[in-house]
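Hey Z.,

So I finally got round to the protoporphyrin IX containing FE thing we talked about over coffee. Here's the setup:
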Amino acid sequence: MAAVKAWIGERLPVEPGSLRELTNEPVPYHMKRWWFALGGTPAYLFLVQIVTGILLAVYYQPSPSTAYESVRYITQEAAYGWLLRGIHKWGATFMIAAVILHQLRVFFTGAYRKPRELNWMVGMCLLIATLMLGFTGYCLVYEQLSYWGAAVGANIAGSVPIVGDFTKALLLGGDGYNEHTLPRFFILHAAVLPTLLTLLVVVHIAIIRLHGVTEFRFADEPAEHKHFSFFPDHVMSELIVGLVLMIILTTFACILPATLGAKADPLVTPEVIKPEWFFYVAFRWLKLFSGTVAVLTTGLIVFVMFAWPFIDDWFRRKTRFAEASVWIGIVGALLIIGLTVWEAAVAH
Ligand code: HEM
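And the result:
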């Protein structure tokens, strides 16, 4: 045993002490409350998406003539294909929900404030990359709504001033949906976006390690317990969360399995075109205002979200409204929920 240890030690000269220091950050006690540790949930679900996604890619064929049939094969014939598809689909829903909840927690606890402004911006990139993963995944199934959702999405991208035409052509591989489009969505969904997301998560976690998470103190916490160990305490809690999530995902995949609508028909526009639930809010917004106004205001909102730590800092230092972020956050959250429910409730 000692010889094996020495052999490995010579080839991988890593000090156990420095390794422990590198991985074992003291975690503030408030992180025992699960809603403070929600960032681990999208990270875990991202892993589930990578594993199930790779397995789905074994059978998926990204071309307009084969995509739908390959998804049908996965759903109806491949061993446990229906389960993998169900977990991947529900995993996406839960991951997006977890990212939104994590962002809400960071927002309402003011954990984006100095010196964490840049990490909030990295977080915004993570949010956009996660939503894009959801959108491109939805397009791959090649059922009616995948096709028309992609067409509508590309048209929206096309209405962005200056770069719109170029972005649309880049996305579709031509002026309109054609045989090059689906492979592009697949490359985006299975290679470009997951790589980007991985890099962003690494940067996000590295910055968290540099600052540590924001310290909060609660009255009911024992005074002598300021911190607990990342390993094994926090890792164990995350493992339990992971196991519970796996049970929930499998249950959802069994009770509400991923379905397959009618095959895409470029000649028949469906009566009702709807994106996935996480784009309801943007879709309703686009319906409320004319094309360019809607796109420009959406851009402005996203810009404000990116710059929020600096806008909030200005409110706190230069105005009497030091708590403006809470009220703006509540109004924003209610608006998002309201528009989402509105879009869900009506056909057009
Ligand atoms: C795939 C998406 C994401 C992953 C995997 C992730 C992961 C994490 C983790 C593990 C933490 C440590 C504390 C915690 O668990 O809450 C954290 C903290 C943080 N995250 Fe995220 N995050 C993601 C998205 C976002 C988004 C969308 C935002 C905001 C726009 C954001 C902003 C922050 C900030 C500012 C902190 C520091 C919080 C503090 O100091 O208490 N993250 N993130």
